[in-house]
Each structure stands twice: as C-alpha cells, then as structure tokens.
Amino acid sequence: MNYQECLNYLYTQLPMFQRIGAAAYKADLKNIQALCEILQHPEKKLKFIHIAGTNGKGSVSNMLAAVFQKNGYKTGLFTSPHLIDFRERIRIDGKMIPKQYITHFVNKYKSAFDNIKPSFFEWTTALAFQYFYDKKVDIVILETGMGGRLDSTNVVLPELSIITNIGEDHKQFLGDTLQKIAFEKAGIIKEYVPVLISEFQKEVYDVFVNVAKERNAPLIYSKDIIKITGKEFKSDFLRISFKINYTNLNLFLDKLKFNYKINKNNKLDKSKNKISNNKKNNLSKSKKNTFTVLSSLIGTYQVNNIQCVLAACEILSNLGWNLNRKDIFLGIKYTPKLTGFSGRWEVIQKRPYIIADIGHNKPGIQQTLKNLKNYSYQTLRIVFGVVNDKEVDEILALLPKNAVYYITQASVPRAMPVNILYEKMIKNKFKGLPHSTVAEAIYKAQKDANKNDLILITGSAFVVADAIAYLQKKKII
C-alpha cells in the first residue's frame, strides 16, 4: 500500500473515536499490550512525561516539548486529535512523522495487528512508540487520548505524571461525577513516580491524594511550587510574573528521594537516586525573587497551564534533566513555532478579529468566553458547531445571547447535524442561521462583519480543523 492507501486503511477500516465516537472506545489495555508485545516493547526503552486531564493537556504537552527542544533534547511529542494532517499527532522536535515511515510501518505490521483488531488510537499509539524508539529520542511528551486508567498510552512508566484539570467531558465513558472522572485520570499515577496536579479543585482533592498515597507516589500541586504574582497582555504575548516556593519544592524532593531509597526493587532509572540536594540544582541558583515569562499562547486559561509547565521544569531539573531557565522561557514563549501547535485561542486575523479556539466542553467553553473580556469589538459573531456526544444543552447555557451565530457542522460523522443544532439554538432564543459547512459559515461571517467586529470559531476541534483548512486555502493563514 502507498501512503494514501495506508491512511485510508487507518481511517476507514479501524474504529476511530474521532469520527464515530462510542463504537471506537476500548475499555481495557489488552490490545495495546498485545501490539507492544509484537513490537518487542519499545515503550519500555523510552523515557516519558505522561499527561492527562480534561482540558489543558495539549497546551502543557506542547509547551513542555518546546522547553525540551530549546534545551537541546531530541523530543518526541504525541498528541491528539490532529486538526489537518494525521501526522500532527506524532512529532520529533516539531517535525511531523514522515509519510514513508507510516507507509513502511503499516505494511510491515498490518497482518499481525489485524489479528488483534485494534482501534485507530491503539494503532497510532503503537506507531508512535516504535517511531520514537527507532529515532532514539531523549524524551517523549505523551498526552493521553481520553481518561487515563484505560487509555492506550497508560502502558508506560514515566519520569513524571501530570494531571491538568478535571471537568465534565466524556461522562458516558469516564463517569457522571467529577470524582469518577478524576479517578479515571488518576489512573496514570504510577508506583513511586512523582505526580504534579495543575489545578487545585476541592471536589477531587481526596481522589488524587488517596490514589497517590496508595501507590507511594509523591504528589504536589503547581501552585505549591509556582506562585503567580501578575498577568497581563503585552502586544501579542501573555506576560506572567511568578515566584518559586523553594521550601515546598525541597520538601517534595525530600519525599521523592526517600521513596526511591526505600523502594530498593523499583524499575525506575537508577539515576533518580541522585536527586540533587535540593539547593544546588541549576534552576534554583538565581537570586531573583520574581521572574517574568512571555507566552504567544495568549488565552487567559494558559496561565494555569504555564504555571504547571514551570513547576514541572523545577521538578524535572532535579531528576537529572539539564533545563536552563533562559531556554525554558524561550520554549514557552515560542511554543507554536517550535511544535506546530495551533487552534488554542489562535488570533488568525485582526480588523476584523478572526479567532479560533477548540473549546468543546463545558469547562473549555467557559474559559474560551472568559478570553473575550480582553478584547473590544462592535459585534460578536460566532461560528459554532458541536459533536453529538457532548452535553450540548449545558454548553448552550453558557453562550452569550447578544452574539450573532453562524450555526454549522464539521465534516466528521460525529458532528451534530446542523439542522438539529439550529433547532436547539432557536428554541433557546439564539440569533443566527444554519450553514451546511464550516467554510460557508465563515464566508458569511466575514461578509457580514465590519472591521471592528470579532469572529470567534469554536465548539469543536473539528470545526476549528475545517476552519483552518478553509482559511489556509484562502491564504488568510
């Protein structure tokens, strides 16, 4: 098979959650374990940072990858979903996996893999593991697909486990309460492996603490290491000032060092026993009390994500990773350029503003709408579409009634048909008209807008994907 035939095989013959939803969901790790066995377990020969969460895990993953790249490490990055090109999911130092590698891999392993009947995501995870191993990367930043405990990525033993936040999403698979969802995400916590939680949420605090305690995994929250002292927009950047709480960091490292010492039979890298004596690591040498970092990811929700990345860097530098503060800041500042990250409060055009954001669930939409407060505009025009398996009524309850809506559907089977979404929105007294494609919706929004308006494209990663493809074709991006 050539590349296009291989891609068609992955898309059409394998159950794919991105397209069909529930029918592609696998509630155990048996398939991925079998695939890794065929590949002779490349995942056991790599170093990982494993990241789960409802929202923010893509941003944290990309920022960490950018940080490691700037610090000279050959860095693998595995994320999902992709927006335009399947190869976006698997990158090394920002460059997508070559078509030739995918073609070779599919042709080589198709027969053996077909006997296992894996899903699209299981196939893709196995492909990523083998690619990163073959290319001898120094570190892999590994984002979960959905959940954590039963996610295909959860066969690795990482350097650090990170959970960004917990929100109501995929409730039919992960549970109908925040506590149940948190338990699934906490499944990535491994025996003796440090765990960093990005956002403090009282409702799920006990879930994380109990799982970490059960697995002897030292746990800390980002806010306990990094204190945000200021935030503002400066030109096209988000400017964040922060202080480092070395007392809390050192207490955490002492716990970590003690755990490694008593766990004589652990399978973790022996270099972990050489955790620095806390006060001598390369990041804590500076005598400055307050630091400033800029980010070209300018959504207000990025503050928590940046805080998490900064905390992770402090921990990782004590685990033997040579991370320089200057290059950490440059990685964060230029993440989209370094990794190819897009679709997160991405300002595509000014006058009128065209902004794309993949907010697609209740907490995501809440954060997306918060960002609007940082902008002045005459009329808000929202190109909006959702997928069938989201809590649509809960999302609609958050949306502003004073906007003009261009109601649409993305080009995937999971998309809620535009006529159904239109009926729901009209019933809820929203102002707008249906459009059969995202391209048509954007074209009409642009035609209606004056230079002082703001066009927001949101509701689904697939809507944003269609939008970016259209805007690229029109040479607006």
Strand order of the largest sheet: 4-3-2-5-1-6-7-8
Instruction: Report the mean per-residue pLDDT as an integer.
Output: 91
Low-confidence stretches: none
The CATH topology annotation of the largest domain reads as UDP-N-acetylmuramoyl-L-alanine:D-glutamate ligase
| Rg measurement, Å | 22 Å
Relative helix content: 40-55%
Structural class determined from secondary elements: alpha/beta
Strand % is 15-25%
CATH class call of the largest domain: Alpha Beta
Give the CATH architecture of the largest domain: 3-Layer(aba) Sandwich
Our measurement of the CA-to-CA distance between the termini, rounded to an integer number of angstroms, reads 33 Å
The multimeric state of the shown protein is single chain
Question: What's this model, at a glance?
Answer:
This protein is 40% helix and 16% strand. It has helices at residues 3-13, 17-20, 30-38, 57-70, 99-114, 120-134, 171-174, 178-185, 205-214, 222-225, 246-262, 302-317, 325-333, 335-339, 362-371, 392-396, 418-427, 438-448, 461-473, and strands at residues 48-52, 75-78, 90-92, 95-96, 139-143, 160-163, 195-197, 219-221, 226-234, 237-244, 291-295, 346-349, 353-356, 380-384, 404-407, 431-434, 454-458. The strands form three sheets. An eight-stranded mixed β-sheet has the order 4-3-2-5-1-6-7-8, sandwiched between helices. It has a six-stranded mixed β-sheet with strand order 12-13-17-14-15-16.
